[in-house]
């Protein structure tokens, strides 16, 4: 069976002397493993499409559940990301995180678009890396069915849009001050961060990065987003540790 797909390489590994095994996030097949024969040869017609972060139109041949690359037309390679270790480390983390939420065999067009928009933002310095990371983490969770609620109190139902509130990072629910106390499993959240979370998770995909908050609020948003994602991924990520190490470099 042949499949025409749009996909981005989110992981690559050598196979034999001239081939690669590619992990590809696709628009309609979820995350799949693709055998790319001979693509490590300089003369390979699909050399650029078989690189990490390469987004291409691909023709795949499937047999017994295994995919082989037969044709590829490069759309974007995001190559400039590789030239800065901090950008590269974040892009690598975003790829690994996406692979943890995408499901093989299921439509993944929204996750693909989210990853592409985020890589574009990194490549073109659309926003600070910490903001891109936090927004991506929250939107990835939201698109995967884990939508944090920050508009109203989960207990009494009062509108908390314009006030500080308490947020349960694991469950993704908010409580007003009258319904919970600071400490324990709840984190105090400013109204600015609450509005940012709502914007990130509910705005059009093309605008999920279009917000601005102060440095202190950005740090809080980053903490919430990372913990929220890790709790739902139920695993850690080596690339996240790599990203944090790289951000400490001068």
Shape descriptor reads elongated
SSE class: alpha+beta
Please give the largest β-sheet. 5 strands, mixed, barrel
Number of strands: 8
Would you tell me the overall average pLDDT? 94
What Rg do the Cα atoms give? Answer: 20 Å
Task: Report the sheet-strand fraction.
Answer: 15-25%
CATH class of the largest domain, please? Mainly Alpha
What is the N-to-C order of secondary-structure elements (H for helix, E for strand)? EEEEEHHHEEEHHH
Catalogue the unreliable spans: none
Number of domains: 2
> CATH fold name of the largest domain, please?
de novo design (two linked rop proteins)
How large is the count of helical segments?
Answer: 6
What share of residues is helical? 25-40%
Major beta sheet, strand line-up: 1-2-3-5-4
Please state the second-level CATH architecture of the largest domain: Up-down Bundle
Distance between the termini: 50 Å
């Amino acid at each position: 069976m042949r499949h025409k797909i749009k996909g981005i390489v989110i992981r690559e590994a050598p196979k034999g002397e001239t081939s690669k095994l590619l992990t590809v996030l696709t628009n309609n097949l979820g995350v799949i493993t693709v055998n790319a024969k001979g693509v490590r040869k300089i003369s390979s017609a699909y050399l650029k499409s078989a690189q990490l972060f390469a987004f291409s139109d691909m023709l795949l041949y499937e047999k017994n559940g295994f995919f082989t690359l037969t044709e590829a037309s490069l759309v974007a390679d995001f190559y400039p990301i590789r030239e800065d270790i901090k950008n590269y480390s974040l892009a690598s983390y975003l790829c690994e995180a996406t692979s943890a939420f995408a499901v093989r065999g299921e439509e993944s067009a929204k996750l693909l678009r989210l990853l592409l928009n985020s890589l574009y933002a990194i490549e073109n310095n659309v926003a600070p890396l910490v903001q891109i990371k936090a927004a991506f983490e929250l939107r990835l969770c939201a698109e995967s069915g884990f939508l944090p609620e920050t508009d109203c109190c989960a207990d009494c139902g009062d509108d908390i849009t314009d006030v500080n509130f308490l947020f349960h990072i694991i469950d993704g629910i908010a409580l007003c001050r009258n319904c919970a106390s600071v400490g324990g499993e709840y984190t105090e959240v400013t109204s600015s961060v609450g509005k940012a979370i709502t914007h990130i998770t509910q705005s059009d995909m093309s605008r999920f990065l279009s917000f601005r908050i102060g440095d202190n609020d950005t740090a809080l948003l980053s903490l919430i987003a990372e913990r929220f994602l890790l709790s739902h991924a139920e695993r850690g990520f080596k690339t996240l540790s790599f990203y944090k190490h790289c951000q400490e470099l001068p």
